[in-house]
User: What shape does this take?
Amino acid sequence: MSPILTRLQGDGLLARVMRSSAWTALGYGASQALRLASNLILTRLLFPEAFGLMALVSVFIVGLTMFSDVGTHPAILQHRRGDDPAFLDTAYTIQMARGGLLWLASALIAWPAALFYGQPELAWLLPVAGFSLLLHGMEPTRVDTAARHLRLGRLTALDLIAQAVGVLSMVVLAWATQSVWALVAGWIVSSGTRLALIVLALPGPRSRPRWEGAAARDLLHFGVWLFLSTAFGFMVAQGDKAILGKYLTLEQLGLYNIGFFLASFPMLLGQTIGGRILIPLYRERPPGASAENFAKLRRMRFVLTGAVFVLLGVMAFAGEWIVDLLYDPRYSMAGAILVVIAVVQIPSVIGMTYDQSALAAGDSRSYFVLTALRAVFLVTGLILGAEAYGLVGALIGQALAGLAVYPFLIWLARRHRAWDGLHDLTFALAGAALAAAALSLDSGAIAALQTVFGGQP
Assistant: This one.
């Protein structure tokens, strides 16, 4: 342990990367444990339809967030003025204005959304849930400063406290009301608690409204491509639920959401760690600057991808057992969904460490091109697959979309001298073996899944 502890100490880049990775992994693991615990309790207090309805609420709230992202967070991470108070306050002003507009937008789309999905409750749920967007917009930029300098310990702890408070309120209200409103209320409580904790307990400069023309131009120039990227990124992150909401019943969508929640843990863990450490790491150690930088990034990439693959293997081979252990028989079909989603994510995991190299270099335009292509391939695969073979077809379409976008991912990585062919070949072979073994082992459950969820819409 002594060499490991030595490397974790100090203020050098390696020490900060290792500490930030450890804190992020610990925080994400604890966060998912809280979500799982609340999920297990709530599935016994509420019906699957409540989770299906909340999945639709989540689609719209996340959609509003992503369709309006102007990239202030990555801009602060990579910009040379990322520690300048005038630059930070201008970013804070943009962020606050955006939060207020998003809350208004959530009220405006509520009634059309309720009509489209035939769910009247959405007309009231969406404006209330949208208040969390206003709270998020009021968070000071000290959050971004902590991420820029890879000092994430206290921020991780505050996030977990806020989540725990939200979960507790959600469970208490679900027990008292047995209503989907308990889920929305917990969401608001968590957002409000996080804002209060960041203001009161996170070190950093005080944010205040200010507008500097030069800072605004830099932020908006960088952000215009991020805005377009996240608009398409919505379909990458939420396209499955948005599209499957028209093909599945609320009960089926609730089952899918539970399977997705469990299966996505490895991928989201990898993306969370990568999203927090890769932009600062690429900024300070560009892979094209030296062979030493490239070798260090290769080691980091092998460790991160390998860890995610191990977790994906657990989900793929033990998915049905995990669901049967944790949930009552009403949710048993989520086990087969979990297995298939774990396999579907393999192509995306292989390339998950490349796209941040573009943002670190300020190349938000190339990042947009890649995200747009991802969205087009994913939506096409989802719709064609769902039309032909129901849920199983939609999941197959997702896997094919991940393969189709890979050549463009290589293009972006090579553009910033970050592509590692040895890494990709190694995990492509490992992924093919993992997928074949998992699907063969669970072929009966997948056939049953096709029987229940297949067919024409």
The chain has a mean pLDDT of 84. Residues 247-457 form one domain.
